């Protein structure tokens, strides 16, 4: 199959909602994205963990006291989304959502909080847990870390825990998850370097390694995950910027594995480049292998297409999605081969 469906989340004042496009895996080209569901600041998307005919999107209406998470039914024939249910995230600045089984978890960036929901088989969302993180634990950067800023909420592959990246508190909160009720119980935490600002993680399919990218520190931490003890241990920390590059206002952003898991890709905003790391199959250790300039601006999210041959970047400030060919033998990126216009793209989801 050479044509794959892709959903695009959008952020900022010009992002109107969730868009749909078709990606040609032979030519590496996107059709022009079409608005499928109007939703303010629908900046992140995921599928229902049990049913990929349903899509979840977070939303934040400007001025509203809390964000929302919305569940949509996907009409494949019409390339249309029909809303099934919507629930409050109970905190402002909803920024990330993930789902597994009947559990949905959300991070509220501005509010510095996280919420979990039990989702019925029909897509109805029921609040299960809410946690407001303690502002007194904030990091040393008074400009960016005046309180908690929850930036990602991920369920571990074993399904037993939830990991909440907190840029403001320089830590990843670890919660024990009851899969039957979707309730979260505080379990522990992993601490980054002071002022690093943990942003997003990538979970290796082997269930043993988790890679964290620090937005402000411009570093990647390889972490060992112990699913029995529910603990994260640092194995390696590596820079995302070249030697001598200034970290002032640079924001490392996102991570994605190559399809064969031999490489890990990362994006730097402001410095505007992508860095490719080779991944040791035995130890998981990273070694920088390649660096490629981003001709767009503000790569908010990156993705690899299902064929493994193309790298995509959602360039939020240049209002387009860029496509780059991948040399699958070396992991290197070629020059941008195509792009498609969309206002404030912030999430790319194939499926």
UniProtKB/TrEMBL annotation:
Domain of life: Bacteria
This protein's name: 6-phosphogluconolactonase
Pfam family, one: Lactonase
Record flagged with keyword DNA repair: no
A GO biological-process term: glucose metabolic process
Keywords of this entry: Carbohydrate metabolism, Glucose metabolism
Family: Belongs to the cycloisomerase 2 family.
UniProt GO MF annotations: 6-phosphogluconolactonase activity
Keyword Zinc: no
Taxonomic source organism: Terriglobus roseus
